Amino acid sequence: MKDRIAKLDALQIMDTAPEPEFDNIALVAKSLLDAPVALISLVHRNRQWFKARIGFDPTETPINQSICAHALQETELLVIPDLQLDPRSRDNPLVMDAPGIRFYAGAPIIVDGTAIGSLCVIDLQPRPEGITEAQATGLTALAAQVSAQIASRQRERGLLDKAEQENASLNQALRRSAALAQLVDAIEETDELPELLRRGSGILASVIPSTRAGFGIVDVTRETVEMQPEWRADGVPSVAGMHHFRDYGSYLEDLKRGEVVIIPDVETDPRTADSADALLAIGIRLLINVPVIQAGRFSAVGFVHSDRRAELSDEDASFIRTLADRMQAAIQHKRMQEERNLLNRELIHRVKNTLALVGAVARQTFRGTDESGRVDAFLQRLQAVAVANELLTQENWEASNLHAVITRAIAISGDAQRIVLDGPEQRLGSQAAISATMLFHELLTNSMKYGALSTLEGQVSIRWQLRQDGPHPALRLVWTESGGPAVIAPENHGFGSRIIEMGLAGNGGSEVDFAPSGLVARFHADLPELGA
């Protein structure tokens, strides 16, 4: 019996709608035996259900009224000429009472070696002579047709199920890919940890069936979590507020270790079974917790809840952990950025203080001497170094932008209204950024003292472009002054001249033309030399 019930359950044929293929077979069986009733009967645990019925109104009967159940004990056709005389059927309510059936002939329906029911023909009159050999052969053949139809139906359903599963898997994979893309956007757009946790939990809830998603702030010493206002499905109560982890199970230790907690059913998981009532009371049957570890300490948790048990596959669990790992990596990266920015701000503050101290010492040392001009030039160069350091601090000491370097130098040394900048975006490494800042500070200072910017009509043009003249892409920059006094080449070759000679990257690549119409300085540096 167990094999029969298991087979019927696997076939999923019980209680399905009528189908012409089966109805036609029953009609042929009725005609073959010239009887008023023909049935395709499937016998389950406590009932027989009729997939097809001709001349019989009930769709099913209790198992104690099933004569077909006796047919399942036979491997061949079962024929009972008079049901009132056979000990197997004489006490059957359908024989003793209405409709008072008297004759039965049934052939077993066998699928994959298991008899699951019979194709039977019934008469209200006894047939002492039974049935002919031709009728027996025909009824057996029709039963085999029923078996073949069921097997064909099973194969078709299997193909459909496989196609549906493949489509479902593809759709799920697409949803997961979209969720990861959304998480990347959230990471790029979000600086605050609470907002990132909120969005990350919502993204996870869009893939895993859920009724609630959000995050909580953890006090690991008190073993509490303060749930923040969360996303909820309609009619689902909020869990915002303070909660003690131990009131809901023993999974806190997993979270402390940074492990993602995935519990498809709180009643069956050993970590929550003893606390299942408390979880179910607030609408949690599925529980997913994603811990946030900061400085080695469990500090926050993203969560997804559902009030229904979820059948989570290995792919689901892997996706949840992948999403959690990316969130954790993003949080750690943002934390490192915050710490680095704090350190950089402290560093630039200390650098400025040091440079200010050096300036003060210089003034005190040369007070009352005729070196005040040189002291002023020295202090201006110190200021240029401070500006370069501040610019690099804003860029995390990784790189800066050529346009920004020039603009900062102009801000402290020149008149921006009379300086034209023209060139593409170009990144500079940290060393090149400092060298370039010192270079433009020196050029601007000289122009303000002796060149084009020393008059109201003078102008400076700074233009640059990328070229591919040699083995590496190179930056070529031209500084051109016009409208100023006649240019005279300096007699002395001092520190300022050496800064200009060092060029953009601090290793040469410069050419200066003291043309009478205005200074022209050309600079060349391969991009690798610029740290770009």
TrEMBL record:
It comes from Paracoccus shanxieyensis. Residues 17-160, 192-341 form the GAF domain. This is histidine kinase. Pfam families: GAF, HWE_HK. Its EC number is 2.7.13.3. It catalyses: ATP + protein L-histidine = ADP + protein N-phospho-L-histidine. Residues 153-180 form a coiled coil. InterPro entries: GAF, GAF-like_dom_sf, HATPase_C_sf, Sig_transdc_His_kinase_HWE. It comes from the Bacteria. One of its GO terms (molecular function) is ATP binding. Keywords: ATP-binding, Coiled coil, Kinase, Nucleotide-binding, Phosphoprotein, Transferase. Residues 346-425 form the Signal transduction histidine kinase HWE region domain. It is an enzyme of class 2 (transferase).
